[in-house]
Amino acid sequence: MRRRAGLTLEAAAARARLSPAHLSRLETGRRQPSLPLLLGLARTYGTTVSELLGETPAVADPIVRAGGPGAREADGWTYWQAGGSGRGMQALRVHVPHGRSQGELVRVHPGEEWLYVLKGRLRLHLGDTEQLLEQGDSAHFDSLTPHRIGAASAAGADLLFVHTLLQSSLAGLCLGGGTTTHR
Predict the structure, then answer these.
(1) Is this model's pTM higher than 0.70 or not?
(2) What are the start-end ranges of the E strands in the chain?
(3) Residues 6+ apart with CB under 8 A from 4
(4) What mean pLDDT is predicted for residues 61-90?
(5) Could you tell me which of 137, 142, 144, 91 has the C-alpha nearest to residue 118?
(6) What is the average pLDDT across 59-76?
(7) Which of 45, 91, 115, 170 could make an SS bond with 83 (beta carbons 3.0 to 4.6 A apart)?
(8) Do the beta carbons of residue 75 and residue 149 sit within 8 Å?
């Protein structure tokens, strides 16, 4: 897994906050890892603990059918799953009501975001700029750039939203620390 991630023993050890000797002993089976150590290594290698332990994952159905997982609501926003769960990218269909910019909360987190406006107009704040996106417009940005979105249409805005947020060890902070929101 370390090699697949393109990391040297030293680089992986530094990212996982281990000594290279300790990581080497884990790799050769001379040491047994604890659960917190496994979680850290899985994050370092961009994988899951199950895969790290050699478990064969169930094949995920790549199709998400209309009428599939139900809508979830948080702070007036409505979310529908639009992609498979447990993947490196998360895809959602989102309705953003007018006047609700998630409490004007500016987001900053590792990863990337892509959005496509299906209906309505969307106000996108990226860093120090504000963009008005119309139906059919899209945006793709590094989510370390401070950002927030809000509907600019009275009826709100509908969009497709894809992000790599859940790969981050900081995902819990960005998701509101255990709430059911996706954004």
Answers:
(1) no
(2) 72-74, 77-81, 90-96, 112-119, 122-126, 129-133, 138-142, 147-151, 157-163
(3) 45
(4) 77
(5) 137
(6) 75
(7) 91
(8) no
